[in-house]
C-alpha cells in the first residue's frame, strides 16, 4: 500500500503503510502489561545508532575529525510539561531514511508479529504481548504524541517527524542540527482504571526502569534533570560533571557488557532483556551458551537459542550469523562466517580481542582466526543441544519441531560431527504420536533386530497407514517416519545411526525373517487360520497379470510384507525408492518414470477370489480392471495420485456397479 501525501511547501502529511497503522492500533488499544518496555526499545535504537556512527568513524576521516565522540544516550524528563525526551548522538537519519525506517515497517517479521499479537489478544494472554519488542512504535504505548528530530552525520538537512499514532504522520525538512536523534514523547495521563500507572516524567521511575531493562547498554545512559536548589539528592548513579550548572547529570547504567560479566551472576531476566536488545526479536530465549576461550585465539561468546525459530529461517535474505565485537566495541552485524548455515537459528555474539577494530567483511571471509572460532562454536553448540535435549526435553521438542529440519542439514555438510549431533535428534516413529530420541528408540529395539528401519514420505498420516509397515507392526519393530525433505539428503545417506545400520522399510528385497522381533501369538494364530490362495491358481494369475499390466508395472509378485492390504507397490528393479523419486521431482529434477513392482497379498480375500476367477475363466476382463484399480489404490496408499484420474474414477464406478449387480 502506498502512502498518500498532501504536500505543502515544507510539511508533508502521510498515511502510515497499512500494516503500520494496524500495529499501532493493536498496540495502543491493547493493555500492555508492561508499558515500560518502550524505554528499552528506544534506548536500544539509540545504542544501535551510536554503534553505527562509532564504527563508521573508524574508517571515515571526516566523521572522525568532526568530533562529538563522547557517546551517550540522554533522558530528559519534564514533569511539568508531561514529556520525556530521549537524545542520542548516533548516526541520525536523512529525510528518506525516516520515511523508510519510521514510516513503514518493511521487515519480514512484521506480518508474523501482527499474527502473534492478534493471537495473544484473542487468547486473552496479554502477558504475551508484554514480552514482544516492537521498536520505535512502542513509544505510542505511553505517548499520545511523538516528535522525532534527527540529523544524519553527512546530511545537509535535518528532519522533524511527528505523529499522534492515529494513522498518519507529518514530516518536514529542517536545517541540519547536531548529529543524532532526539525523540520527545508527550506522555499519556493516567486513566481511572490504571492501578499501577507509572509516570515516565519522574526521575525515579526512569532510574528504576533503566537499571532493570538497559543496564548492559555499553554507552552511558544519562539522566538530565533541572537542578532544584533544595531538592533532595537521591543517590544511585555516578554523578557526572555538568557544563550547565542548572542541570544535574546522572549516569544510570553500569555499561558493563553482559558477556563480560561472570556467567553465574547473570539472571534469566537479564539474558531475556539482552537477547531482545541484541536481536530485536520478540522471541523468548530458552537457552544460552556463554563461555570464554583463552589461548591462541581468545574470545568470548554468548549464544542464544530461542523457543521459536526466526521468521526468516528459510528466507534467502534472512538474518544470518552473529554480531562481532572487538574488545566490547561492536564492529559487525550478521557475521555469517562465525556460524555454519545449519546453525542459522542461533543468535548471539562473539567478542575477540585479537581482531582489528576496522575488520571488514572481506577480511572476515579469509581470516583464520574466524575459522578457528567457528569450529569451537559449532562444537560447543552441538554438545549443548545434546545436553539440553535430555535435560529440557519438553522445550527441546518445541525448538526441534521448528529448527530440526535445519539442524539436520549438518548430517550432510558435516558428517564427521555425527556423534555430536545424534543426542539432539528427535524422530516421529510408529511408537506413539510424540517424539522419540535415538536412545529411546534403541531401548525399544526388538530381539534380533539389527537395523533401524525408516519410511520416507510426505506426511505422517499417510506414512502411518502405509502397507509397507504391516510386517513391522506384526513383529512390533519400530519404524522411523521421515517427512522432512532434508531427510532424503541427510539422514538416509548416513551409513549408520547410533551404530545401527539404517534401512528402508519399503525396500523391495526386504525379508520379513531378517527384520527381527517376533510375531505375536495372536497374529500367528490368525495366520494359521487364514488360508492362502491356491498356489497354482495364484501363480497363474501372477503370470497373466505380469503380461496384461505390462504398461503399468515392471513386475507382479506375491508379497511377503503385506498383512492387511490386498496389494502394494515397491520400487522396481534398479529404481530408486519411490520417495526419493518424488523428492527429485519436487526439486524440479528429472526423475525418469520407472515402473514399480506390484505385490499381491496371497492371504487377502480379494486376491484369493481373483485367483479363483482367473482359474474359472482366464479371459474375464474384470480381472484386469480390478488389477488396474489395485495399482492405483497402491499409489494412493503411498500418498500419490492415480496415474489417470479419469480412468481410475470410471473403473471404480464400474467395479462398484458390478458388485451391487448394476
Ligand atoms: P528495529 O530497531 O527493530 O529495526 P524500529 O522500529 O525500532 O525497528 O526502528 C526502525 C529503524 O529506524 C531502525 O532499524 C533504525 O534504522 C531507525 N532508527 C530508529 N531509531 C533510531 C535512532 N535513534 N537513530 C537512528 N536510527 C534510528
Spell out the key features of this protein.
662 residues; binds adenosine-5'-diphosphate; 37% helix; Heat Shock Protein 90; disordered N terminus; 25 strands; 24 helices; alpha+beta; Ribosomal Protein S5, domain 2; 20% strand; Rossmann fold; 4 domains; eleven-stranded mixed sheet; six-stranded mixed sheet
What small-molecule ligands were found? adenosine-5'-diphosphate
CATH topology of the largest domain: the name is Heat Shock Protein 90
Mean pLDDT, all residues: 85
| Residues in β-strands, percent | 15-25%
Q: How many strands, what sense, and barrel or not for the largest sheet? A: 11 strands, mixed
The CATH class of the largest domain: Alpha Beta
Gyration radius, in Å:
33 Å
Report the span from N to C terminus: 60 Å
Q: Low-confidence segments, ≥5 residues, pLDDT <50? A: 1-9, 126-133
How are the strands ordered across the major sheet?
Answer: 1-2-7-6-5-8-4-3-9-11-10
- Broad shape: elongated
CATH architecture of the largest domain: 2-Layer Sandwich
Helix content: 25-40%
The helix/strand class is alpha+beta
Number of individual domains: 4
Number of E strands: 25
Number of helices: 24
CATH-level-4 superfamily name of the largest domain: Histidine kinase-like ATPase, C-terminal domain
Amino acid at each position: 500500500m502506498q502512502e498518500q501525501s498532501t504536500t505543502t511547501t515544507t510539511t508533508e502529511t502521510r498515511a502510515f503503510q497499512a500494516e503500520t497503522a494496524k500495529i499501532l492500533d493493536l498496540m495502543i488499544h491493547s493493555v500492555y502489561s508492561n508499558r515500560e518496555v518502550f524505554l528499552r526499545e528506544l534506548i536500544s535504537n539509540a545504542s544501535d545508532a551510536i554503534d553505527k556512527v562509532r564504527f563508521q568513524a573508524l574508517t571515515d576521516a571526516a566523521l572522525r575529525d568532526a568530533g562529538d565522540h563522547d557517546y551517550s544516550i540522554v533522558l530528559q524528563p519534564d514533569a511539568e510539561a508531561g514529556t520525556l525526551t530521549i537524545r542520542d548522538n548516533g548516526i541520525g537519519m536523512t529525510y528518506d531514511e525516516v520515511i523508510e525506517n519510521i514510516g513503514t515497517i518493511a521487515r519480514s517479521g512484521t506480518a508474523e508479529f501482527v499474527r502473534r499479537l492478534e493471537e495473544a489478544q484473542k487468547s486473552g494472554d496479554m502477558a504475551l504481548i508484554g514480552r514482544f519488542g516492537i521498536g520505535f512504535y512502542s513509544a505510542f504505548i505511553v505517548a499520545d504524541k511523538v516528535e522525532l528530530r534527527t540529523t544524519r552525520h553527512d546530511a545537509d538537512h535535518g528532519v522533524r517527524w511527528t505523529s499522534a499514532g492515529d494513522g498518519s504522520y507529518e514530516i518536514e525538512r529542517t536545517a541540519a542540527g547536531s548529529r543524532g536523534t532526539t525523540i520527545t514523547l508527550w506522555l499519556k495521563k493516567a486513566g481511572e482504571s490504571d492501578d499501577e500507572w507509572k509516570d515516565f516524567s519522574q526521575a525515579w521511575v526512569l532510574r528504576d526502569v533503566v537499571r532493570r531493562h538497559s543496564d548492559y547498554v555499553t554507552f552511558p545512559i544519562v539522566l538530565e534533570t533541572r537542578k532544584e536548589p533544595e531538592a533532595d539528592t537521591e543517590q544511585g548513579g555516578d554523578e557526572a560533571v555538568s557544563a550547565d550548572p542548572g542541570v544535574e547529570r546522572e549516569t544510570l547504567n553500569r555499561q558493563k557488557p553482559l558477556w563480560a560479566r561472570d556467567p553465574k551472576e547473570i539472571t534469566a531476566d537479564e539474558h531475556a532483556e539482552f537477547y531482545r536488545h541484541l536481536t530485536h526479536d520478540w522471541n523468548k530465549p530458552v537457552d544460552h551458551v556463554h563461555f570464554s576461550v583463552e589461548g591462541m585465539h581468545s574470545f568470548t561468546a554468548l549464544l542464544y537459542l530461542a523457543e521459536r525459530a526466526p521468521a526468516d529461517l528459510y528466507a534467502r535474505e534472512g538474518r544470518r550469523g552473529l554480531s562481532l565485537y572487538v574488545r566490547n566495541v561492536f564492529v559487525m552485524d550478521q557475521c555469517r562466517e562465525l556460524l555454519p548455515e545449519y546453525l542459522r537459528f542461533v543468535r548471539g555474539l562473539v567478542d575477540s580481542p585479537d581482531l582489528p577494530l576496522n575488520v571488514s567483511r572481506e577480511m572476515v571471509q579469509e581470516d583464520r582466526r574466524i575459522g578457528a572460532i567457528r569450529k569451537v562454536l559449532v562444537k560447543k553448540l552441538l554438545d549443548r543441544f545434546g545436553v539440553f535435549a535430555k535435560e529440557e526435553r519438553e522445550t527441546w521438542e518445541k525448538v526441534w519441531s521448528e529448527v530440526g529440519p535445519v539442524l539436520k542439514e549438518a548430517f550432510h555438510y558435516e558428517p564427521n560431527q555425527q556423534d555430536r549431533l545424534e543426542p539432539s535428534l528427535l524422530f516421529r516413529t510408529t511408537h506413539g504420536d510424540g517424539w522419540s530420541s535415538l536412545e529411546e528408540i534403541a531401548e525399544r529395539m526388538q530381539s534380533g533386530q539389527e537395523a533401524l528401519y525408516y519410511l520416507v514420505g510426505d506426511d505422517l498420516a499417510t506414512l502411518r497407514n502405509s502397507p509397507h509397515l504391516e510386517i513391522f507392526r506384526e513383529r512390533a519393530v519400530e519404524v522411523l517416519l521421515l517427512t522432512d525433505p532434508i531427510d532424503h539428503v541427510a539422514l538416509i545417506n548416513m551409513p549408520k545411526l547410533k551404530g545401527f545400520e539404517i534401512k528402508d522399510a519399503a525396500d523391495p528385497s526386504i525379508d520379513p525373517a531378517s527384520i527381527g522381533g517376533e510375531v505375536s501369538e495372536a497374529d500367528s494364530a490368525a495366520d494359521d487360520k487364514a488360508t492362502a490362495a491356491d498356489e497354482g491358481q495364484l501363480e497363474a494369475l501372477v503370470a497373466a497379470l505380469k503380461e496384461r499390466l505390462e504398461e503399468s508395472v515392471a513386475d507382479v509378485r506375491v508379497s511377503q510384507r503385506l498383512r492387511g492390504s490386498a496389494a502394494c507397490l515397491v520400487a522396481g528393479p534398479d529404481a530408486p525408492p519411490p520417495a526419493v523419486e518424488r523428492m527429485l521431482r519436487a526439486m524440479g529434477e528429472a526423475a525418469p518414470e520407472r515402473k514399480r513392482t506390484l505385490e499381491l497379498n496371497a492371504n487377502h480375500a480379494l486376491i484369493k477370489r481373483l485367483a479363483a476367477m482367473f482359474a474359472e475363466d482366464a479371459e474375464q476382463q474384470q480381472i484386469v480392471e480390478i488389477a488396474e484399480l489395485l495399482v492405483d489404490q497402491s499409489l494412493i496408499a503411498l500418498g500419490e495420485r492415480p496415474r489417470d484420474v479419469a480412468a481410475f474414477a470410471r473403473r471404480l464406478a464400474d467395479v462398484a456397479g458390478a458388485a451391487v449387480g448394476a
